[in-house]
Amino acid sequence: MKIGLETESYHLQFMTGRMDIFQFIGKTAELGLDGVMINIVKWPNLPGWGTLESFEPEYLKRVKAEIQKYGFFAEIDTNGTDPVHLKQVIEVAHQIGADVIRTYTCLGTYDAERLKQAPENIQQIVPILQKYRIKLAVENHEEELTSEVIRIIEEVDSPWVRAHCDVGNAMMAWEDPVEAVKRLAPYAFTTHFKDHIIVHDGDDYRVCGVPVGTGNIDLEQIFQILVEQSTLTRINVEMCFPYATSFKRVPGAGGVFAVGEGAFKVEQPPYELSFIKPLDYYEPPRKLLEKMIEDQANGVEQSVKYTLALRDKYCR
Q: DSSP H helical segments within the chain, as ranges?
């Protein structure tokens, strides 16, 4: 099993200009990993395409060369199902040597109409996926239930379109993460391997990312499921810390009705509420930025160490 790293794991360094894609690729090699998942979802008020500065051919050649220098696999993360956009992303993936593209349907809030339209949109880009031998993986991205992802896959009915199994996102839709992984594993082309806790935020609860292995998701069981019940040859660490978000569906939508037990056990937030509110973690104030960048970097190292230990235990 190869282990990769998603660029989102260092989002604070990317967003502040302290890391670019070439430095990220080098850091991934330094951590002893096998590949990269490159997020090209645009960040608000920042130029470029997420962690890629542009889609210009000469720039993409340089990215591909850096990936090949380390013998890495490469995957791309995008969003939406607009056929015009996805065709452009497929061309970019082809140019950098990425063979899997992650996308998702809803963009921040649950949108039944987007879910309904997704199969028809995706069917339009299947021929170009086939042409370039690139796979499209539809993610359970916070708003979607696993059953809704599976419905899209079955309606598209193409060997080039399957699932992206995010092992934590089901919680935002009130779905037990272990059960969600069991459902998606047989369909999975790729993954995000992460960890979560539930935290108080005033009268509300938030799903909060933490370094892999320090939260309440049963990641050891999930790793076993991915090894035994999928055809995956790669698992990608996406260390979503510091990050917190609201629940995106009503309680019970995914079978869990309340916080309190298992993965939904309530813990203290990683930072005092008087310092920073959980929903502000992703873009912290300047006074906390240095500390949170350091915490994120330490969290990546901790997450990688934990995931590699699971690989050694279950795949070697």
A: 11-15, 21-30, 57-69, 83-96, 112-123, 126-132, 146-156, 177-184, 219-229, 286-315
- Let me know: does 122 contact 81? Beta carbons within 8 Å: yes
Q: Which among 137, 129, 125 is positioned nearest to 163, based on CA atoms?
A: 137
Question: How far apart are alpha carbons 87 and 72 in whole angstroms?
Answer: 24
Structural domains in the chain (count): 1
pTM over 0.90: yes
CA torsion sign for 306, 25, 81, 44 is positive
In a domain, 282, yes or no: no
* 210-265 residue pLDDT tens: 999 999 999 999 999 999 999 999 999 999 999 999 999 999 999 999 999 999 99
**Per-residue three-class SS string for 55-108:** CCHHHHHHHHHHHHHCCCEEEEECCCCCHHHHHHHHHHHHHHCCCEEEECCCCC
Judge whether 199 lies within some domain: no
Closest CA to 52 of 2, 18, 7: 7
Q: Is 256 inside any structural domain?
A: no
Domain membership of residue 69 as a residue range: 2-194+214-240+287-315
Q: What is the CATH number of the domain that holds 23?
A: 3.20.20.150
Cα–Cα dist 45/65, whole Å: 29
Residue 40 C-alpha from the chain's centroid: 12
User: Is 260 within a domain?
Assistant: no
